[in-house]
Amino acid sequence: MYYVITDGHGEAGRPDAEKNLSGIGNSRYPLPRKAPAEIEERLMIHKTRLFTPGPTPLLPAAQFAMAAADIHHRTPEFRALFAKVLAQLKVFVGTQNDVLLLSCSGTGAMEASVSNITSPGDRVLVLTAGKFGERWVDLAKAYGLVVDVIEKPYGQTFDLAEVKAALKPEHKAVYMQASETSTGASHDVEGVAKLVKDTATLLIVDGITGLGTQTFDVDGWGVDIVIGGSQKAVMIPPGLAYLSVSEKAWKAMETAKNPRYYFDLRKERKNQVKGETAYTPAVALVAGLGAALDYIAGQAGGDLEKGRIALIDNAQVNAAATRAGLVALGFTLFAPASPSAAATAVLVPEGMDSGTVVKALKAKFSLVTANGQGTMQGKIFRVAHLGFFDALDTIAFLGAAEVIAKDVLGLPVQFGQGVAAAQEVFAKAAKS
């Protein structure tokens, strides 16, 4: 709660306002008696800022669209909206393949990408180097698959020669992340796709934080399924997942024997081509997604493809500026060899819990970042760049990080040095 200092009669700024503490406040907003320093602290306005890799900051235009989405889902009005959004998603993903929209989190689409193309006993290859790679392993085992795993330590990525050696003709599918958000690492989807293309094996990519932050040539590379989520680069709340599906993947579904009901992609394809969903959709979120995709197109004169490219460039430049600023402050990046533009993971000094940094940023500035996940909890904190972020957001974060680095971590920080390093990145990007 925040208070306005007055003299008790609605007049602010009088010289005796601080002296007459018992008179501070007014009849509507009484302020308890406090020492002057404490009053000064309470008067700081704290504007909450999300720097988490999901949910991400909401686009105002999408919020308005969701608030106004009083539409029944079995009407011509919704069918027109839904068909428009599906067509926009094909451009956003960058594919001529079918794109389906599901009312669930990204994990629901991950599960659908296992259950719809496999049968119990099928052999698959999973590439894992973080919490979300481990999720692929768990999902595959849950559906009775034989799982071969290439596992790398958190923060690292994969040697393509090792992937090539592990890939077998009997592998039904390869599952991987584009961006491993738990570690701030980016993986080489194109390199893996070259190994899988022209084989019977399917390539399924969790692009939930990769879409909108890194470049994909889905059709050219031969990626069979790519998954996205609503609370990431498209700037709306959680609750929608979308995925592109190749003809090769559709053919695999004809013989797949694993059970599926709500996530039966064949059923969704049959309905969505008519502008409907098999079951009740998240109507307001669909409206918000349409507004967000319109906004992305609007950033490039109405061209959604160019808008997608601009969104990716925006994430990559903000990520580079954040990394430069944090390194200038004395922090160590967790995945420096292959950093993601979705989120940057940062190590804290030995003996320090990264949760302390997360809590300090929130307490001092209402700035919300994320702790590490899995084995990295307490060791790293993560700051996001995907979606509705701009240069001033990055500068604000680094200004806050300077204070925490100096006051909480005891690093030899001069105010402005992190911001200055980021400004150099932005200046260089503006000239290129």
Structure description:
The chain is α/β, with parallel strands linked by helices. The protein folds into three domains: 1-45, no CATH class; 49-55 and 302-431, Aspartate Aminotransferase, domain 1, CATH 3.90.1150.10; 60-298, 3-Layer(aba) Sandwich (Aspartate Aminotransferase, domain 2), CATH 3.40.640. It has 15 helices and 15 strands. It has helices spanning 36-42, 60-67, 76-93, 106-115, 131-142, 160-166, 189-196, 218-221, 247-253, 265-272, 283-298, 304-328, 354-365, 391-407, 417-431; strands spanning 49-50, 98-102, 123-128, 146-151, 171-177, 179-180, 185-186, 202-206, 225-229, 241-245, 332-333, 343-347, 367-368, 370-371, 380-384. It has a seven-stranded mixed sheet with strand order 2-10-9-8-5-3-4, sandwiched between helices. The protein has a four-stranded antiparallel sheet with strand order 11-12-15-14.
Shape: globular
User: Regions with pLDDT < 50 over 5+ consecutive residues?
Assistant: 1-40
Major sheet, described briefly? Answer: 7 strands, mixed
Please report the total strand number as a whole number. Answer: 15
CATH topology title of the largest domain = Aspartate Aminotransferase, domain 2
- Share of residues in strands: 5-15%
Write the layout of secondary structure elements.
Blueprint: H1 36-42, E1 49-50, H2 60-67, H3 76-93, E2 98-102, H4 106-115, E3 123-128, H5 131-142, E4 146-151, H6 160-166, E5 171-177, E6 179-180, E7 185-186, H7 189-196, E8 202-206, H8 218-221, E9 225-229, E10 241-245, H9 247-253, H10 265-272, H11 283-298, H12 304-328, E11 332-333, E12 343-347, H13 354-365, E13 367-368, E14 370-371, E15 380-384, H14 391-407, H15 417-431
Parallel strand pairs: 1-13, 3-4, 3-5, 5-8, 8-9
Antiparallel strand pairs: 2-10, 6-7, 9-10, 11-12, 12-15, 14-15
Helix pairs in contact: 2-11, 3-11, 11-12, 12-14, 12-15, 13-14, 14-15
